[in-house]
Structure formats: C-alpha cells, structure tokens
Amino acid sequence: MPARTSSARSTAPDSAGTTRRAFLNVSDAAEYLGLSPRTLYVWRHRRQGPPSFRMGPRGRVMYRVEALDAWVREQEQADSRSNPALNPLGVRPQERSAPFTTV
After folding, report:
1. Average pLDDT of 2-16?
2. Distance of alpha carbon 36 from alpha carbon 28, whole angstroms
3. What is the pTM of this model?
C-alpha cells in the first residue's frame, strides 16, 4: 500500500537548515505541546487554547506551528510565575478609602 501524502505537510527550512512542517494536525500539535489530542479537541470545542482552522476538502483541523509558539509565549506572559509584573506578592495591599459604617 503506498504512503499517503497530504498537502498539509507544507515544509520550510528553519534557521538550522533542517526541514520543518508549517502545519500540524491535532495529534502532531498535541505531541508538540505535550498534551493529549483530546485536550486540544475539548479546548477547540470551548473556543480556548491555541488557534486552529480547517484545511482541505475533508476539513481536517490544523494548527500553524508559528501560532502554537505564539500561544505558548502568551501563556508564559499571562502566568504570574513567569511574569514578575503580575506577581501579587510584589504589590502592596490596597487600603480602604473609607471605613464601613453600619446604620
């Protein structure tokens, strides 16, 4: 049986001169991110997670490698452990402007 070829396997050389794929299917994207394919399906259904799109006549769900990398960078910046500006321990506690009075 001949091997299946797919137009989704677009490749481009990276800076090291090796060939790398520009698009990944769900299982490859999950492996790339260290997640299960089921997690990506759930996130897609909930409109969460990295951006994805449908490609080709069969409408296969695909991910751009560049979009996955950008999404990971966004996650790092949104985490207070990676972004010192978001660390709540580095901020002084807020003081109340006026005490509560009960009537």
Report:
1. 48
2. 10
3. 0.63
